[in-house]
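User: My instructor asked us to take a sequence, write out its structure as tokens, and then describe one feature of it. I'm not sure where to start. Here is the sequence I was given:
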Amino acid sequence: MSSISADKTALIVSYVFPPMAAVGGQRVVNFCKFLPHYGWTPVVLTVKNGVNTSWDPAPLKIIPETIIYRALTFEPVLRREIAQFTKKEAYIPKAETQSVNSNIEFKLSLLRRIKRFLRLFLTVPDHAIFWIPFGVLKGLKAIRREKISVIMSSSPPVSAHIVASILSRLTGIPHLLDFRDLWTLNQNYDLRNYPPIFKRYDKFWEQFVLKHASNIMTATPGCTQELEGYLKGSIRGRLVTITNGFDYNEIDLSKEFVAPEKDKFRILYTGSLYSQFNPVFFLEGLSLWINSNPHIEPKVQVDFYGNYDYDYNGYVEKLGLGKVVTFHKYINRRELLPLFTMADYLLLLIGFRPQARSVMPAKMYEYLASGVKILALSPEGPAVEWIKKYDAGVFICEPDQKMMVNLLQTIYDDWLKTPRRPIKYRYIEEIDRAKLTGRLAQLLNETAGLRG
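Assistant: Let's start with the prediction itself. The structure tokens for your sequence are:
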């Protein structure tokens, strides 16, 4: 791939962007890194004082030529929730809280109902709605200065699409949508328990954005299929898939890594744990397996790295896994990637909800590229298909603890009898970030031709 001078400019609107250490920001950063090789100059519109749980400014160093405009924002509700999130309440199984929480909706005081209404009013379509006016004003400034050819927006949060759609309508510049996760078709949307009036309000903004978009892309084939059925042909341009990927420029493909010592069978999880993407089923299966085979406890090690919605340590102790499972704090990707080669399996937790069948977490591509085997808990869908396609590991597709225990025993037995072998990164052309950005550049070229 040869570098050429960039002669077209794209305004990329994204709330998540470094120094926020959010996985969605990696997609935007990598697009910014490689777009100049295809004749496009990226200009980013993001926030100045956004809210997040982790921070890492290092990715900005790989895109020194990217022009960045930062708009003011304030998120009173999110700041309060982040403060509560950092305290991390202890995880309690649902069965133990059911009697306390049953019929709670019917017992809410009038004051609490009002508070809930106000909270929804301030967070639908998402928590970042307060940056919309500031984003539009800053975006207009960027458009005047930078001679923008195309406006592209990436979500979540979806407020980025609203900012971009308003800018497109005001200026006539075509708009390309990028859905890392879907909007009202999101796999966890039903868990938000929106009252009907807020669902209608949310759909209004979704239709406001979708109807005006020139082209639309999503990060997974499953999301593309779902959105295609939802739109039923009512789209101005094309609907395409450009997945996440792995930046092979970060590593040496020829390098071999010594496999970890055989003293421990190591399982590693990286990333956030929240909502349905939680470790409960896995931990319970792990507990059943180890408690029925106590002699293997000293031989098993499971490490979690990331941000978590609950403090799981008490539950881990209750399951008898205190000597096996460790929850570590968040560390950045530079520190995290070397840990991959010290693991025997990389754990992927998508859960078993049918709504999650289209989910393909960004970490999946790093797992695939690492060459380390994957242990996935996922419904049948793209993640499982890719594991099969590249013979990249094992999976369980339904919440059956007997199957979980049997699978753990199988991979442990295989580990015991398999000699240590060097590990190499796996090159997969279709997840190469540079080549994926080439496809984006072609889509930007096409979108730019749809002005007016």
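For the description part of your assignment, you could build on this observation: Residues 1-5, 97-107 have pLDDT under 50 and may be disordered. Try explaining in your own words what that tells you about the chain.
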